[in-house]
Design goal:
heterodimer; A: 115 residues; alpha+beta; hypothetical protein PF0899 fold; three-stranded mixed β-sheet; B: Rossmann fold; two-stranded antiparallel sheet; 23% strand
Chain lengths: 115, 235
């Protein structure tokens, strides 16, 4: 249940950001989650509901997830291609000299506060 | 409203105020880990983060390795588990070196802060090498930098040679991969060459060391690698 651990980190950072901005209650948290971040969005929102409702500041707070596509760059032919479909091997030239450009994000994009 | 550099006030619409954060949840941990590494360097302590799936033989491999090294360098072990202290007790009784048990409280990995708390309970002034035995898990520990100098993992033969394909991140963050339980090779369809090839795909610089912790075969190679690492770090 690796998503629960991740939820605890999100809660810690959201509470800190809310405190720094003088916010008493957060109504929504928007996350950027990379396609190959190993996080299952459904599990994350389930864990979030359970854990967030235990915090006064986050009771009823919604977790919104925006998916960041995974893109791999090929050093051999300088092209970018979708990671999930093609993996480590470049579909254009067959090279494995490739690296992940984006898709591992586990980032708090923003928090929303009802005024 | 007070704003700091991490939080930029963006829009005001439909009575909902949006505060932009744009912060990776790993950011704090990465910073803590770098700080910890720098501190360990100045104190001359080498921290190895040892990871693997449950049941790959981490504790047995450690006992064999420690018994080969304990007359040459001073070693301590931190055992991280969700619960129980069986591993810490086993290490202590089999090697006689200081061993402490960390409980992650349900978390599936250790982060830099938990590692620091463990180190606070370790006699660092009397130690050259601390081995952190992470929670048995190939997913989460790979994502959290513990502050260790190097990451090592143990892959055992029954798990199959295609594991580097299934857990790409774990294999890409490890500097050394120990392949354990080589004695049971005849009973499994494990292809060592294929396994090495897959590991190199994830991390071309990874060192691969086949061992059998039960018979002790190959352990010298791992112990030598580790001793070299510790001596280099203390220079």
């Amino acid at each position: 249940m690796h998503e629960l651990g991740i939820v605890f980190y999100i809660i810690r950072d959201v509470k800190q950001a809310a405190k720094e901005n003088g916010v008493e209650h957060v109504s929504a948290v928007v996350m950027n989650i990379g396609e190959v971040s190993t996080i299952v969005p459904e599990y994350l929102t389930d864990c979030w509901r359970w854990a967030a409702d235990k915090e006064d500041m986050l009771r009823g707070c919604e977790l919104k997830i925006e998916t960041v596509p995974a893109v791999t760059h090929c050093d051999n032919c300088s092209s970018d291609y979708p990671t999930v479909k093609h993996g480590k091997t470049c579909p254009h030239c067959g090279s494995t000299r490739t690296w992940l450009l984006s898709g591992r994000e586990v980032e708090i994009k923003q928090i929303e506060v009802k005024t | 409203m007070r704003l700091n550099k991490n939080t930029i006030f963006v829009t005001l619409m439909d009575e909902v105020k949006v505060i932009e954060i744009k912060k990776s949840i790993f950011e704090n941990n990465d910073r803590d880990a770098d700080l910890l590494r720098a501190e360990l360097k100045s104190r001359g302590v080498y921290l190895l983060n040892l990871m693997s799936a449950p049941g790959s033989g981490k504790t047995t491999t450690l006992i064999q390795t420690i018994n080969r090294l304990k007359d040459k360098i001073r070693i301590a072990v931190m055992e991280a588990d969700i619960d129980s202290d069986v591993d810490a007790v086993k290490i202590k009784s089999a090697t006689g070196i200081p061993s402490i048990q960390l409980h992650t409280g349900g978390m599936c990995h250790l982060d830099a802060e938990m590692t620091r708390q463990g180190l606070d309970n370790t006699p660092l002034d009397d130690v050259d090498l601390v081995i952190l035995e992470n929670v048995g898990n190939l997913v989460c520990p790979a994502e959290f930098d513990t502050g260790a100098v190097r990451n090592a993992m143990i892959l055992s033969v029954p798990e199959g040679h295609d594991k580097p394909l299934k857990y790409p991140l774990m294999f890409s963050v490890c500097d050394v991969v120990v392949i354990n339980k080589m004695d049971v090779m005849p009973y499994f369809d494990f292809d060592l060459d294929k396994c090495k090839e897959y590991i190199k795909m994830r991390n071309p610089k990874a060192t691969v060391i086949p061992v059998c912790a039960k018979t002790g075969e190959g352990i010298d190679a791992f112990a030598d690698w580790l001793l070299g690492q510790v001596r280099e770090w203390k220079k």
